[in-house]
Amino acid sequence: MTVADETELLVRTRRDLHRHPELGFQEHRTAGIAAERLRAAGYKVQTGLAGTGVVGTLHGGAGTGPTLLLRADMDALPIHEQTTHDFPSGTEGVMHACGHDAHVAIGLAVAERLARSRGEWGGTVKYMFQPAEEGLGGAVGMIDAGVLDGVDAALGLHVWLGLPSGIVGVVQGPQMAGAGEFHVTIHGRGGHGAIPHETVDALMIASQCVVALQTVVSRTVSPLEPAVVTVGSFHAGTAHNVIAATAELVGTLRAFDPTLLDELPGRVEGVIAGVCAALGATYDFQYRKEATPTVNDRRLAEIVRVEAERIVGAERVRTDPDVRTMAAEDFGDVLEQVPGCYFFVGGRNEERGMIHPHHSAHFDLCESCMPVGVDVLEAAALRVLKGGLAS
Ligand SMILES: [Zn+2]
Ligand SMILES: [Zn+2]
After folding, report:
1. Any idea which UniProt keywords this protein has (predicted)?
2. 68, 186, 244, 306: which could form a disulfide with 237 (CB 3.0–4.6 Å)?
3. Which one is catalytic: 75, 329, 364, 378?
4. Is 225 annotated in the active site?
5. Which residues carry a binding-site annotation for Mn(2+)?
């Protein structure tokens, strides 16, 4: 296959998937395409893992070696697409607004290259096409299905609008934050807006909670340690002359440090408990951890950096802390179990208007980043499969 043919197939695959987006755990068509191409390339294919997950396994022809997990996520988002390109979503209310269409296209290209070169490497490749990355626990489902059994290392990438097209971003240690979601219900006592002294105003108390929560990061977390507490939703009240009996707050917690991430819910609840106690309300607090921080292994991040610099040049590889993001990603659940590296390939193109953030209805990515992703992921995989972890 020529480079031009491969690039054409990459773009064609990505656009086809873009036209047919599927929500988490519903990726039947996408999984079918992945399974068919993996089989055609010679992989032994398992389907239906964690619902719609696919794993292709291939043994190298050059003897023993490590087992390497490679990963692409497949799901789209419940967003009504508002882009202007000529391959928009054909499914109402569903859109590939995170770039997972590109991840599947890149993953299949890398899988096919590794199949063509299997005589040159030892060990085993497990290529995971994972469902439901967008907050639905697809990675955990695949881990529970045993996908990490015997795996020595893991690699994956995200196309990333935070970086210009084709720039590779990789850091040692945390690359993406861990995340959790909290729900708070404040219970007061409703009543007449003109008779406030006979009520417990849940709306006012929830407002105090929102303000007091701003101190969790600013006054309990070291200024040198990244963390976020965001209240993203506040609902209370029904009419101008009614004091609200209840109020609901929903928010997200983020941190790079796993211990800190596990401590934040307790600190948030402590603030809410204190404010409610002071002002006469009660509360319910619920927390759900969504993702562990995505923490790169030092050796594997170094392999990705070296290979990326060889392929795109040192001036197009960024390793500074600003590459990191407080966005989260469930590949962190994989990297909690096995050493690995998750890196970014820039997809931003100002001239062509590809500037909208991930999860925007206007999101689009510069497709010329996709061959870079293929080259770097393949090269890093080959380094690992040829014994790079031992050196
Ligand atoms: Zn996303
Ligand atoms: Zn994503």
Report:
1. Hydrolase, Manganese, Metal-binding
2. 244
3. 75
4. no
5. 98, 100, 134, 158, 359
Closest CA to 57 of 37, 75, 38: 38
Domains of the chain: 3-172+297-388 (3.40.630.10), 178-291 (3.30.70.360)
pLDDT beyond 70 at 55? yes
Token pair 């040192």 is found at: 314
- One-letter amino acid at 294 equals T
pLDDT at residue 142 is higher than 90: yes
Q: Which tokens sit at 210?
A: 């929102």
Helix (H, G, I), strand (E, B) or coil at 206: helix
What digits encode the pLDDT tens for the residues 158-213? 999 999 999 999 999 999 999 999 999 999 999 999 999 999 999 999 999 999 99
- Is pLDDT larger for residue 276 or for residue 3? 276
Residue 120's SS3 state is helix
- Is residue 325 within 8 Å of 216, Cβ to Cβ? no
Q: Which of 133, 330, 364, 378 is catalytic?
A: 133
- State the angle between helix axes of 3-19 and 28-41 in degrees (0 to 180), rounded to the nearest 10: 160
